[in-house]
Amino acid sequence: MTSPDTAALVLRVIVGLTLVAHGYNHVWGPGGIKGTAGWFQSMGLRPGIVHAWVSGLVELAAGFGLVFGFLTPFSAGGIIGTMVVAGITAHRNNGFFIFKPGQGYEYVLMIAAVCAAIGILGPGKASLDHAIGIELDGWAGGLIAILLGVGGAALLLATAWRPERKPAESAGA
Question: 108: which of 83, 98, 132, 159 fits an S-S bond (Cβ 3.0–4.6 Å)?
Fold first, then answer.
């Protein structure tokens, strides 16, 4: 294995397992799927229960896909999409830094950027993609990951994100 193969393996396993844990928490963690659904609904993702299940299952499937290097650009794209939706619905109004109240978008931005890089880098030799002869890396892999992620997020937000509008403040007299 070359050093890029090793780098791809390390990135895939760490990011993949992180998303598996995140998806597991959405479905079976404290509050379970009902708690996640209520949280999503409160952010304007309607219906919350559908988004809770989809988010949890995509995080689990795409996370395991990265861990094993299976359909790597598609797995990376699933994670990018999830991070874009989270960044827009939950984190963008809280600034950049994660330690700010409400948590900023730095975490979801970093996960998405790493997944875009994994799409470009490819899964490396220690992957199912390599073992079965799937070669989607370089610009093709990066474009698949980014377009799938950003396009999927845009479609989801356009069709299902309906945040409550706050009443406009009256102008001072």
Answer: 83
Residue 101 confidence (pLDDT): 83
Helix (H) or strand (E) run with residue 65 in it: helix 48-68
Give residue-wise pLDDT tens across range 99-124.
888 899 999 999 999 999 999 999 99
Contact 123, 137 (CB under 8 A): yes
SS3 assignment, position 134 = coil
Average of per-residue pLDDT values in the chain: 94
Nearest to 25 by CA among 52, 45, 61, 47: 52
**Confidence check: pLDDT of 168 > 60:** yes
User: Rounded distance, CA 130 to CA 136, Å?
Assistant: 10
171 has a pLDDT exceeding 60: no
Residue 161 has phi, psi (to 5 degrees) of -95, 115
Question: Which residues have C-beta within 8 Å of that of residue 128, sequence separation ≥ 6?
Answer: 68, 69, 70, 134
Residue 85 in tokens: 């939706």
Q: Is the peptide bond preceding residue 47 cis, with omega within 30 degrees of 0?
A: yes
pTM assigned to the model: 0.92
As a whole number of angstroms, the distance between CA 36 and CA 34 comes to 5
